[in-house]
Structure prediction request, 269 residues.
Amino acid sequence: MVRFRSRKPFRARSNGSFRVDLPDETRQVILNLAESLEELVALDVPDTKRLFPTAYPDDPERDAGYQIFARDQLVAQRIKAAETIRATVDKTTLTQEEFSTWLGAVNDARLVLGTRLDVSEEDELDLSEPDFELHLLYHQLGVVLHHMVEAIAGTLPDKGFDPDRGPG
Amino acid sequence: MGVVMGTPLELEDPEVIGKELTDADLPWVVIVWNDPINLMSYVAFVFQKLFGYSKEKANRLMRDVHEKGRAVVATGTRTEAERDVNRLHSYGLWATMEHDK
Prediction:
């Protein structure tokens, strides 16, 4: 069950690390999801199709070439993510890299759940739905992700000008 | 296929224009497509993080993806575009590339 005990469960610190204030049960949900992903990406199942997108929709031959390296790399990324989360699941301070890994795992889990549930942009919770609990988890992960993005987005440099426009 | 979002964003960059004159492989466009799952704030964050875009530009591109269904987020040689597509895929975004004929 995803629960919060703080209005800001994730906070960026001035030294570049992140403070995580989550109850154990929520941490366990994140770990369980990362470990499920670790298993799922090794299989070729429809639920994970959003994790392995097509690069060249108009050119199957080139796309096959892209997939040869990309698929292995994207699978390895999820295996490494599960390892990182196993090792850091109880930590209250995460490095920026560890925090990014948590963020990616939560987003991946939403992608797989959203694919399985075939969600629409206006997906709303409906108690009478047979998959209600999965829909609830999907929405709760959205809240977790929102908090994570809020914490990390503030650490990115905002140059105040667009690279394609130049200064000013 | 033409660029539907108006002027390709990166072609105004002097460095890219310089490359364009000498590189016959240009331009490939990197397109991010709307999907019902990714959070808008997450998509904008990824654009800012991966491409170093300002918050304003990242949000503009995110809104284009959301409202128009797709946005060209980068242009370059095939190698550059493929690298960008791959980085976007590693962040779970639905990105493709095509030769901007």
User: Anything to note?
Assistant: Residues 55-68 of chain B form the longest helix (14 residues).
